[in-house]
Amino acid sequence: MGKQGHIVSFLREQDGVGIVEIILILVVLISLVIIFKKQLTSLVNSILGKITSQSNSI
Question: Which residues belong to any copy of the Putative Flagellin Flp1-like domain (predicted)?
């Protein structure tokens, strides 16, 4: 098999496709977290504040 045959067989392999999909999903999720960091932080802080205040009243 020549050089072209190796390239064609490499392009036809599907082994690495799952890994690439997982990496792309992680990149999208991390990007969303970075974009909405301020909103997520305020949401978590308000939820934890409500939990703390309601647990103190018990």
Answer: 10-56
Q: What is the DSSP letter of 6?
A: H
List, for residues 28-43, the tens digit of each pLDDT value. 999 999 999 999 999 9
Q: How many domains are contained in the chain?
A: 1
**In this structure, are residues 13 and 21 in contact, taking their beta carbons and an 8 Å threshold?**
no
List, in sequence order, the alpha helices (H) in 13-36: 17-35
Taking the CA atoms of the chain, what radius of gyration do you get in angstroms? 23
| Residue-number span of the structural domain to which 25 is assigned | 17-56
Q: Is residue 49 part of a domain?
A: yes
Angle at 46 between CA 45 and CA 50, to 5 degrees: 115
pTM above 0.85, yes or no: no
